[in-house]
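Z., the sequence and structure:
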Amino acid sequence: MDTVIGSRPLPGWLQALLPASLTGSATMLLALAAALLVLPAILGALLDMATYLLQTYVVKVIGTSDLRARRRARPSVPRPVSNLAGDPPWPEPAAL
């Protein structure tokens, strides 16, 4: 904003990145700043909408009750528990 409203020049890395036609006009720089502010908000809203649509589609196709039934039918994997001595509950590999 200092470049558009004030008299400060653009940072060197930004001057190298932008074309000369854009860096010479304060109006174009203001339009670029506004676009960089609005564009992420629009992309975020589109991402939220796509996520919602995909979740809705998956629930409709697979069905929530089917997912819950699959989760209950899956056998649980026993987790190893260490003993009081701190040794691992599985045998150590044999030395070669």
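The two ends are 69 Å apart (CA to CA). Residues 2-72 form one domain.

Let me know what you think.
H.
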